[in-house]
From TrEMBL:
Protein's name in the database: Transposase
Alphabetical list of InterPro entries matching this protein: DnaA_C, Transposase_17, Transposase_17_sf, Trp_repressor/repl_initiator
Residues of the Transposase IS200-like domain: 9-123
Transmembrane region(s): none
Gene3D superfamilies in alphabetical order: 1.10.1750.10, Transposase IS200-like
PANTHER family: TRANSPOSASE IS200-LIKE DOMAIN-CONTAINING PROTEIN, TRANSPOSASE, Y1_TNP DOMAIN-CONTAINING
Domain Chromosomal replication initiator DnaA C-terminal span(s) in chain numbering: 229-299
């Protein structure tokens, strides 16, 4: 499966996350936390990264970064790479620390930036076993600096969030805002499991297309469009194979009958729609997911052997090209 495209342009805001490989702890002691904060300072000084929020959470981290130079990839290469080196020196280990590439979500500044800052800062208490009783007591996030209970580092940019809040008493106002809890839309967005790459409305996505028109348009469309529904995929597969969608969904009884369109549609629902095996089984009128797994894996093997290339090309054209 191809890696998702990184969307970068001048002045973009990104919510960046990464966690330890195998969910291992990446911050054990105060020296680890301080080492990571030093790397954030370096990313600002060397690459002009503007850090608006951060929260370091034991086995993962959250950052809200603005990129005046459209260089998020370079910034994150420094943050993850240099911290891994320092972690290994501190703990006398070697090898990779993180699970892989960082997760990056492009954020629409208005209206989501303020809400996202609250989501990031509430991480230590919005969990099954809160790390602290009072959010202000958690040392390893930018929240104490936002409410003026800790000195703000020179590389932490708080003014944009304060401006969006629009209150005279910015410290008390922000404390009260965070205490209200995460906005329902933000909570729903992050509870989807497979995070979308863009947090914003259709108008924002269209503006991103304009900002990034020099990049690979086909790849950008894949990340800017919401996941297609299983029914949408079925309809396109039916057109490609010149059959009716109900014939693809039907489950003939008795002896197994070869149905290439059905197998390809199951694979496509998982690959492009991010449907679970159980969801695909329901869509294709199956009582269990075993048959789905068999068909999906069969198509995957055949793709490696060079089959299905024409069908994949036609499907992606139908899914991602705006008429």
């Amino acid at each position: 499966m191809p890696r998702p495209t990184r969307i970068e342009y001048k002045g973009a805001f990104h919510h960046v996350m990464n966690r330890g490989r195998g969910r291992q702890t990446i911050f054990h002691h105060e020296k680890d936390y301080q080492a990571f904060l030093s790397v954030l300072q370096e990313s600002h000084e060397q690459f002009d990264a503007m850090i608006h929020c951060y929260c370091l959470m034991g086995n993962h981290y959250h950052l809200l970064i603005e990129t005046p130079k459209a260089n998020l990839s370079r910034i994150m290469r420094h943050i993850n790479g240099v911290y891994t080196q320092r972690y290994n020196r501190l703990h006398r280990t070697d090898g990779p620390l993180f699970r892989g590439r960082y997760k990056s979500i492009l954020v629409d500044e208005d209206p989501y930036l303020l809400q996202l800052s609250r989501y990031i800062h509430r991480n230590p208490v919005d969990m099954k076993r809160p790390l602290v009783a009072q959010l202000s007591d958690y040392r390893w996030s930018s929240y104490p600096a936002y409410i003026n209970q800790a000195e703000a580092p020179s590389w932490l940019f708080r003014d944009r969030i304060y401006q969006m809040q629009g209150q005279r008493q910015k410290y008390v106002g922000y404390r009260n805002y965070v205490a209200q809890g995460v906005d329902e839309d933000i909570s729903r967005f992050y509870n989807r499991g497979n995070y979308l790459t863009v947090l914003g409305d259709k108008a924002f996505k269209e503006s991103v297309r304009e900002e990034t028109k020099e990049q690979n348009i086909e790849q950008l469309r894949k990340v800017l469009e919401d996941r297609p529904s299983g029914q949408r995929i079925l309809e396109l597969v039916a057109v490609i194979f010149k059959v009716k969608s109900r014939d693809i969904k039907s489950c003939p009884g008795g002896k197994r009958v070869s149905n290439p369109a059905r197998a390809f549609a199951m694979y496509s629902c998982q690959r492009y729609g991010a449907l679970s095996l159980k969801q695909i089984a329901v869509l294709f009128n199956l009582s269990h997911s075993g048959s789905v797994s068999f068909s999906v894996n069969k198509v995957k093997r055949e793709l490696v052997e060079g089959q299905w290339l024409s069908e994949v090309k036609q499907l992606e054209r139908g899914l991602y090209i705006v008429k």
